[in-house]
Design a protein that fits this description.
Number of helices: 22
Largest sheet: 5 strands, antiparallel
Shape: elongated
Low-confidence stretches: none
C-alpha cells in the first residue's frame, strides 16, 4: 500500500472521530482551546529549534566518608561555585527561599501572570520600576545566561523559563537557583556561602543562618557577611518576624533564631588531605563532588604522627615521609599522607611520596619466597646456605656485611638476608618474579623488565609506596590482588591471584615472627596492640626506608627518606620507618579484635622434616621438627645431610671403593656439607668435623686428591688487552670421582663448572688469588698478576 492510500485509509478512520469531538466542545471554548493547542505546539517547535542547554561549571569539591568537604577548587573563571545536592536542601531551607523569592513557585509554569500584571500596574502608577515579577525559574535563566535588560530579552527569559519548567522538576530548578545565586565577590551558591562563611554544609545550617543567606542576594552591596553583620542581623530578625506571622516556622524556632548571634566571617576554602585531593581531582575531573572513602579523623591523626616522626628525624637530615592506610574489609583508602608537610616547599612537601618511584630495598622478598613455595623449590624449614657467591660478577652481600652459613628459609626471610634471596631467585629465574610484579601492576617493572637481573629482589628496580602497599594488601587477602576503592560505592574487585592461599599463609606466618620495635617500650599495653605481619626494606645508598604491614583489618605502607634522593647513613627500614608504621597501626587499629588468618586446610599440611636439611627425614635423621608443605607441590626429596665414609680405625685416612682394604677399616658418618659451605668454613676458620684425608696410595686420585690448577700458571704476569677484553682460561685436574669444581677469585665465588670444563674469566688489574675447590671440599690456590695494556 502506497503513502497516498495509507493516508486516505487513516483519514477515513480518524475524521469521523475528530468531527465528533469537535461537536462536543462548546462554541465559546473552541477558539481559546485551539489557540492554546496551537501555542503549545508552537512552544514545542521552538523548544526543538532553540534548545536551552544548562551547562554549569562547578567548583570541584572532595568529600570524606562522612560527607565533610575536605578540599575545594576554584572554577576556571575563579569562582567558588559549589554544587548543592538535592538531599542537602532541607525543608527549612526550601521554605525560606521559596517564601522570600517566589511564594507561588510550585504552582506556576515558570511565569507568574499575576505577578507580571501587579508589577506592570505598580511601575505605571509610580512612574518607575518599583517591583519585579521574576520567578525563581526566571532568575535561574538570568543567572545561567545573563543579558542586558530589554523587553525582547525579558520575553526571551520568559520563554527560557518555560523551557526549564518543561525539562526539569521544580526541585531541580530550585537546586539550580541555590547553586547559582550570588553572595558577593566570587562566591556563588548557598553551599559555597555556607562553607566559606559558616564552615557548614547547607543541611547543617540553622534557621537563623538560612534566613541570613536568603536575604543577601537581593542586597549584596549593603548586606556583606563579615563586614555588616550587625545590620544583617537586624534585617534577618525582621524577616524572621515575617516568617512567624505567616506561620512558616514554630514560635519556639523563631525565638531561638532571633536570639542566635551572627558570627559569620570569610574563611579559607577547605584544603585538607591535599595530596589525596589533588589526585582525586585529576582522576575524576568530570565530577563536581568527588565522594571518597577517606576517613578524615584517621587522616588527621596519621598526618600528625607523620609530622611528629619527621620532626624527630630532622636533625639526622631525614626530612620526609609518606603513609598509606587501606581498610582490608572494604578496600577503602582511609588515610593518604603524601609528605610530612605539604606546605614545606624547602623539602619538597608538595611531592606525593605515595606515587614517587623509589628503590624498594628488601620489600619484594616475601613475594619471591611465596613464588618459591608455590613452585616447590623450598618450604619454610628448608636449609639454604648464606655464604659468599658470585653470579657473573654480581656478588650480593647481607645488610650487615656478614654471612651466616646454613640457615632456614624462614630465618632468611624474617631477618631479610640478601644472599639466600638471590640464590632462590637464581633458581626460580628472574622472569618469574618479574611476571608476578607485572600482574601486581608495578608499572616501572613492566617498563624495565628487559634490564632487570638478580639484583631485582634486593631493590634493583623502581616501585612506588602505593604499589608496595597494594602487594601487601594482596597478602592480606590470601594472595589475591584487589583494587583499592577510592570513591563511595566502589566495591572490592578481584584482579589477579599472585600466590596460592597455602603459600600466602606461610609468608604471613613468617612475617609475624619479627620482633616489633614498639613492644619493648609498651609491653604492658601489648594486649591492646594489633597483631601485624610486616616487612622492612632499605634501598642501596640508604636513600629509602620502608616498612609495610598488614593484619585482618588494615594494610599500612610507610616510606621515610628525602625527596631529593639524598642518602643518610642512619636511614634504615627497621629503625627509621618501622616506628612510624606501628605508631599508625596502634592508632587506627588499637583495641581491635585480634582475629588472625587461618591456614587453608585443603591446601596446606604439616610434616616432620630433618632440622639439618629441612627435607623429608631419612633413617639416620635424629633431630626433627614440624614444617608446612603444599601436597603434590613441595619437594619430597629425602635428607642427605650425612654420608657414610670408610676410614682407618685411627680416623686418619679415608678410603674409596677402589682403595678400600680387605680388612682393618670402619664405617663412619660425616656431615655431607656442600663445597661452598666447606669453603666458607675454611675461609672463616669455622671448626667442623672433617673427613680424613683420602688414602694417599690410591691410584685414582692425584696427589692427596687435591685439585691441580693448570691455568693460570702460578707466578706468571698476564698482560690483558684492555680494548679487546681478553679473558684468562681457568682449568684444573681433579680426582676421578669429582664431578663439579668451584672457582673463586680473591676468595669470592665466581663460577661452578664441570670437572674438565674450561672456564673463561675477564680479570681486574692487579694481583689475584685464583682458587679451585672440588665437590669433595679439597682446595688449591694460585697467584698471578694482571696488567692492562693496549696492543
Amino acid at each position: 500500500m502506497g503513502f497516498k492510500a495509507t493516508y486516505q485509509s487513516w483519514k477515513q478512520k480518524l475524521q469521523p472521530r475528530a468531527v465528533a469531538v469537535h461537536r462536543k466542545i462548546p462554541r465559546r471554548l473552541r477558539k481559546p482551546l485551539y489557540g492554546s493547542v496551537m501555542a503549545f505546539l508552537l512552544f514545542l517547535l521552538l523548544d526543538v529549534l532553540f534548545p536551552f542547554r544548562v551547562e554549569v561549571e562547578y567548583s570541584t569539591i572532595v568529600t570524606a566518608n562522612d560527607n565533610t568537604v575536605m578540599h575545594a577548587f576554584l572554577t576556571t573563571d575563579d569562582k567558588w561555585r559549589m554544587m548543592t545536592e538535592l538531599e542537602e536542601i532541607t525543608p527549612e531551607l526550601k521554605k525560606a527561599i521559596v517564601y522570600k523569592e517566589d511564594k507561588y513557585f510550585y504552582y506556576h509554569f515558570g511565569i507568574n501572570p499575576v505577578a507580571i500584571v501587579r508589577a506592570m500596574y505598580n511601575n505605571i502608577v509610580e512612574g518607575k520600576r518599583t517591583s519585579g515579577a521574576s520567578t525563581i525559574t526566571m532568575q535561574v535563566v538570568r543567572l545561567l545566561a545573563p543579558k542586558e535588560r530589554t523587553y525582547w530579552n525579558k520575553l526571551t527569559e520568559m520563554f527560557r523559563a518555560m523551557q526549564l519548567e518543561w525539562h526539569y522538576t521544580k526541585d531541580e530548578i530550585l537546586q539550580l537557583y541555590l547553586n547559582l545565586v550570588p553572595y558577593g565577590g566570587n562566591i556563588e551558591g548557598v553551599k559555597s556561602a555556607a562553607i566559606l562563611y559558616f564552615d557548614k554544609s547547607p543541611n547543617h545550617l540553622s534557621i537563623a543562618e538560612i534566613t541570613a543567606l536568603a536575604i543577601i542576594p537581593n542586597r549584596p552591596t549593603s548586606l556583606r557577611l563579615g563586614h555588616s553583620n550587625e545590620f544583617i542581623q537586624q534585617e534577618r530578625n525582621r524577616w524572621l518576624e515575617r516568617f512567624r506571622a505567616d506561620g512558616l516556622f514554630t514560635d519556639e524556632s523563631i525565638d531561638d533564631a532571633i536570639e542566635e548571634p551572627l558570627s559569620a566571617y570569610r574563611r579559607e576554602a577547605p584544603k585538607l588531605a591535599p595530596h589525596f585531593s589533588y589526585r582525586m581531582k585529576r582522576l575524576y575531573a568530570h565530577l563536581p563532588i568527588i565522594k571518597t572513602q577517606l576517613d578524615l579523623q584517621k587522616q588527621r591523626k596519621v598526618e600528625q604522627l607523620t609530622m611528629n616522626h619527621v620532626n624527630q628525624l630532622y636533625t639526622q637530615n631525614i626530612k620526609n615521609a609518606a603513609v598509606l592506610v587501606v581498610n582490608n574489609h572494604t578496600g577503602a583508602v582511609e588515610a593518604y599522607v603524601g609528605s610530612a608537610d605539604f606546605n614545606n616547599r624547602d623539602d619538597g612537601g608538595q611531592v606525593d611520596g605515595i606515587r614517587a618511584v623509589r628503590s624498594p630495598g628488601s620489600t619484594l622478598k616475601p613475594l619471591l619466597y611465596g613464588l618459591a613455595f608455590d613452585k616447590g623449590v623450598v618450604t619454610p624449614k628448608t636449609i639454604i646456605s648464606d655464604v659468599p657467591v658470585n653470579y657473573s660478577g654480581y656478588k650480593p652481600e647481607n645488610y650487615d656485611g656478614k654471612f651466616y652459613g646454613n640457615i632456614t628459609v624462614e630465618h632468611a626471610l624474617a631477618n631479610s638476608l640478601n644472599v639466600p634471596a638471590v640464590k632462590v631467585l637464581s633458581e626460580l629465574k628472574t622472569e618469574q618474579l618479574t611476571l608476578a610484579l607485572k600482574q601486581a601492576h608495578f608499572n616501572q617493572i613492566g617498563k624495565d623488565e628487559d634490564k632487570l637481573g638478580l639484583s631485582l629482589v634486593l631493590g634493583g628496580c623502581g616501585v612506588t609506596l602505593e604499589e608496595l602497599t597494594h602487594l601487601y594488601h594482596a597478602f592480606a587477602h590470601g594472595g589475591n590482588y584487589m583494587h583499592f576503592n577510592w570513591l563511595k560505592g566502589d566495591s572490592a574487585i578481584y584482579q589477579e591471584r599472585l600466590l596460592s592461599e597455602a603459600s600466602n599463609f606461610m609468608i604471613t606466618e613468617i612475617l609475624t615472627q619479627v620482633t616489633r620495635p614498639d613492644l619493648p617500650l609498651e609491653w604492658h599495653n601489648s594486649a591492646h596492640l594489633p597483631k601485624v605481619a610486616w616487612k622492612t626494606g632499605t634501598s642501596y645508598g640508604r636513600k629509602d626506608a620502608w616498612s609495610i604491614g598488614y593484619n585482618k583489618n588494615y594494610t599500612i605502607g610507610v616510606w621515610v627518606g628525602n625527596f631529593s634522593a639524598e642518602g643518610v647513613p642512619g636511614l634504615n627500614g627497621s629503625e627509621t620507618a618501622s616506628p612510624l608504621l606501628f605508631n599508625v597501626f596502634n592508632e587506627v587499629d588499637r583495641n581491635s579484635q585480634r582475629e588472625w588468618f587461618m591456614a587453608p586446610e585443603e591446601e596446606i599440611e604439616f610434616r616432620l622434616v630433618c632440622t639439618e636439611s629441612g627435607k623429608v627425614p631419612d633413617d639416620f635423621c635424629t633431630s626433627k621438627e614440624m614444617d608446612y608443605f603444599i601436597p603434590t607441590v613441595s619437594s619430597n626429596e629425602k635428607c642427605t645431610h650425612l654420608r657414610e665414609v670408610w676410614i682407618s680405625p685411627d680416623s686418619t685416612i679415608s678410603y674409596c671403593t677402589t682403595c678400600q682394604p680387605d680388612a682393618g677399616y670402619i664405617a663412619a658418618e660425616y656431615q655431607n656439607y656442600s663445597p661452598e659451605i666447606l669453603t666458607y668454613f675454611e675461609q672463616y676458620q669455622i671448626k667442623y668435623d672433617k673427613i680424613p684425608t683420602h688414602n694417599p696410595d690410591c691410584e685414582r686420585v692425584f696427589a692427596n686428591g687435591v685439585p691441580e690448577i693448570t691455568s693460570p700458571v702460578e707466578g706468571v704476569d698476564y698482560f690483558v688487552d684492555e680494548v679487546d677484553s681478553t679473558e684468562i682460561m681457568l682449568t684444573c685436574n681433579v680426582a676421578n670421582d669429582v664431578e663439579k669444581v668451584y672457582w673463586y677469585v680473591n676468595n669470592k665465588f665466581y663460577k661452578m663448572a664441570g670437572a674438565n670444563e674450561k672456564v673463561f674469566y675477564y680479570p681486574p688489574e692487579g694481583k689475584l688469588k685464583i682458587s679451585c675447590t672440588d665437590d669433595k671440599g679439597r682446595n688449591a690456590n694460585t697467584w698471578i698478576t694482571v696488567e692492562y695494556i693496549t696492543f
